[in-house]
Amino acid sequence: MVKRYDSDKMKQLVFKIYQGYGFSVKQSEQLAEMLIYTDLHGIESHGVQRLIMYDDFIQNGKIRVHSKPEIVKETDVSAVIDAHFGLGQLNGIFSMDLAIKKAKQHGIGIVTTRNSGHYGIAGYYANLAAEQGLIGMSSCNSRPAMLPTHATKAFVGTNPIAFAMPAKPHTFIFDCATTTVPQGKIEVYNKLEKDLPALWVAKNGNEPVYDHRDQADFAALRDPEANVGLAPLGGVSEDTGSHKGFGLGIIVEVFTSILSMGNISTEITPDDLSVGPCQSFTVIDPAIFGDKDKIIDRFSRYLQDIRELPAIPGKTIYVHGDKEAIAYEDRKKNGIIIDDRTLEEIVGIATRLGVDYAAAIN
Asked: Among residues 294, 254, 257, which one has the least CA distance to residue 276?
């Protein structure tokens, strides 16, 4: 069952929880802002639903509360960051802020980060650039989850890609895993005891897994040696474009782990405390190509032309960012959506840390 909760009250609870772990006031504010931003935009798989995973990582030492990101190589337009296993959101904000600074000074900034942690939705970081009138891109590798085309074992991560560009009436944001869906969406369906609606998970290379009662198969998604994995964008057949999602996942690997000399997907495991995911952050100032305002206006007209195309009866044409904007207005007014199991997890964490949660859930 899912219910609605006031976003401001839940943000305050998340802020107190991270202070309870020992994060600073500023860090706790950044973490609460990012997680609630995610839920406000309708992406429940990566909002407060992820608190339990981060809690586990903090307790076992995979996330190190007092670590700070370090610049280990830098040029005018680029940098490599060693995050020293700090919480991924804090590393992401630090890295994107640096890329934005470089883009403002030199027209472009590219930062790649190693030894980080799960950083939530890639689109949040791309949007940080767009909020300042810039084009932003971000991506992240992860532990093996994707089945390469014709393979029976996962090898590539979900490896999301995000792109954000200023537009009217709101920012264009494209954010997607290079698998058909992210791992977190599978977790949400399991919590709600819902069958998967499409070929999101396969075993033995091409056998669909749908039934939520097949818990052995879903549990095997965490086992790189199991014959179960997430389908790439395009499914599990070249006829439907499986090789395209697979190829995009490899490109993400280049911009994250290969360029940073960090851990590739197959070297990342939930239990190994000496490895962490890698991320990339790219920012471009449209002004290096011409009048920024005219470029954004032209892009906005282009998007509006798409929205106004003839649509299938009963359907609406959306461009990327439209649904998120609609979700934000709804959730800001009526509350963010949290399922009962996730709420129990949040209450459990707050109780252990001695944080009062009553105001947020009543």
From this structure: 257
